[in-house]
Specification:
mainly alpha; about 0% strand
């Protein structure tokens, strides 16, 4: 599976699992009801889905121009950490506003996700690539072809 279909399947399943984790995790970490954190988790998931699609497109564009192909451990870690760190810029102000807390308090609530999500992203990406195969950007180019 390649192209837009791959990206849509990837993002849909990634974010569905993330939505469940976010709702329950935010409720636990903020000591509020899941009914209060559920809408926040939906907003977070929506932002994450949009950013995930953009981020993965940019990452695959960069990846397709690298001399070394494949998804090494280092490349997978860089992908997971890069996604989470860039996403935090969008999420901390939203969490602070929704839960009526300071940016520092929102950062502390989000800290668990800052640690958990790259791990989840790493495992999810590995499993997704095992099930659906590597994207074209990570596949070796045929001998004699220009990269």
């Amino acid at each position: 599976m390649q192209g837009l279909k791959r990206k849509l399947v990837y993002v849909t399943f990634y974010e569905m699992i993330g939505l469940c984790m976010s709702t329950l995790g935010l409720a636990y970490l903020s000591d509020t009801q899941a009914s209060h954190t559920g809408p926040l988790a939906v907003m977070i998931t929506t932002i994450a889905m949009i950013w995930n699609f953009i981020y993965n497109s940019l990452f695959e564009y960069w990846e397709s121009r690298q001399a070394t192909r494949g998804r090494s451990l280092g490349r997978r870690v860089a992908h997971a950490v890069g996604f989470q760190l860039t996403l935090v810029v969008y999420l901390i102000p939203l969490i602070a506003w929704w839960l009526d807390m300071t940016l520092l308090e929102a950062f502390l609530v989000d800290l668990a996700f800052i640690i958990l999500i790259p791990c989840y992203t790493f495992v999810y990406n590995w499993a997704f690539d095992r099930i659906f195969g590597l994207p074209a950007s990570a596949m070796a180019t045929p001998q004699g072809s220009a990269a």
